[in-house]
Specification:
338 residues; alpha+beta; Nucleotidyltransferase, domain 5; 2 domains; seven-stranded mixed sheet; five-stranded mixed sheet; 12 strands; elongated
């Protein structure tokens, strides 16, 4: 995201909000399932706030941005002990974070900014850092608007934490609605709390549509009984073709034999269209269309649906696919040690 960087005054306001949040220590009575929203009055987008640190291991406020951010939070919450699901959820985060760590946990740039602003911090897990996580990007710098939104979210988190100090579980309602902090009727009015329906989690393809000519020629191929498993993931340990861009891995294997049919590394911006093209090439090389493609991520399914639907290939999403998850883990380890 390109935008104006924060001014020193905006950075100082953000550090002040972080200090207020830290001093109230909401993680001592709130857990990461007690989600609430804070509206950004500049964009009209809600940030869905999650207080981390109940176990004392990492103290932070995560602010998941808009519908995509909320979907990312849901993916994190449902990943359980599935390492592939956890990695996918982390790779697809669209969120701001105010975290607190030791001094060694900061980047040199963050330490330099703290010195330049004349700030000092003492003690373990006391040094603030502010990050923006965006799918396929390496922690781009905060914009001024994001800094203001994060400062407001930190402040409103204290308001919510104090209001629900004695009954934080009331933030998790049976009807699924979420508490949202938003501005009053005018700029002078105090902020108010309302209960709203959460966003619908809808996964859409990141591409446009496959080539009609290639689809027509592939549709003439006979359909076999084969079932393929497919997966996609980011590889943060690999340098992308563009600075700051994280490449993505596509993995395809035959379900019955376990044979790996395709391993492909692509730049994020052209990833989905390249996968469509190469999948159709693979079908022509093998002389037929598979009966089904199985995936273990809803977003992977959404990316493949524009191709599988016109080719009459059944697409099924499973919670777990141990075989392809195991192959993927080996490939990630291979790239990590290169």
């Amino acid at each position: 995201m390109v935008g104006t960087p924060p001014t020193d005054a905006e950075w100082l306001a953000l550090f002040d909000a972080a200090a207020e949040f830290y001093d109230h220590k909401p993680w001592t009575w709130m857990t990461d399932d007690q989600l609430f929203g804070v509206l950004d009055p500049e964009t009209g987008i809600a940030g869905y706030c999650c207080v981390l640190g109940a176990l004392g291991e990492f103290l932070a406020l995560n602010v998941y941005l808009g519908d995509a951010g909320y979907a990312g939070y849901c993916a994190m919450a449902s990943s359980g002990d599935d390492m592939a699901a956890i990695e996918d959820a982390h790779g697809n985060l669209d969120a701001l974070m105010a975290g607190f760590s030791d001094r060694d946990g900061l980047t040199p740039e963050e330490r330099a900014m703290i010195r330049r602003l004349g700030l000092t911090f003492r003690g373990k897990q006391r040094w603030p850092s502010f990050r923006y996580f965006r799918p396929g990007r390496r922690s781009p710098a905060l914009t001024a608007g994001q800094a203001r939104h994060l400062a407001r979210a930190l402040h409103e988190s204290v308001v919510v934490a104090e209001a629900y100090h004695d009954h934080p579980d009331d933030l998790v309602r049976r009807d699924g609605r979420l508490l949202l902090r938003r501005p009053g009727r005018n700029s002078a009015a105090p902020w108010v709390s309302v209960w709203v329906s959460p966003p619908r989690v809808i996964y859409l393809s990141e591409g446009s549509t496959p080539s009609e000519a290639m689809v027509r020629s592939t549709r003439t191929l006979p359909q076999t009984n084969a079932v393929w498993e497919a997966d996609m993931c980011y590889l943060p340990m690999v340098d992308g073709a563009e600075p700051g861009v994280i490449p993505r891995l596509f993995l395809l294997m035959d379900h019955a034999s376990g044979l790996i049919l395709q391993v492909q590394l692509e730049n994020d911006s052209s990833f989905v269209s390249a996968i469509w093209r190469d999948l159709m090439t693979k079908m022509r090389d093998l002389g037929g269309r598979p009966a089904a493609i199985w995936v273990r991520q809803a977003q992977v399914g959404a990316n493949l649906l524009p191709l599988t639907e016109p080719l009459s290939i059944q697409l099924k999403v499973f919670r777990r696919l141990p075989a392809i998850a195991g192959v993927r883990r080996l490939l990630i380890q291979h790239f990590a040690h290169r």
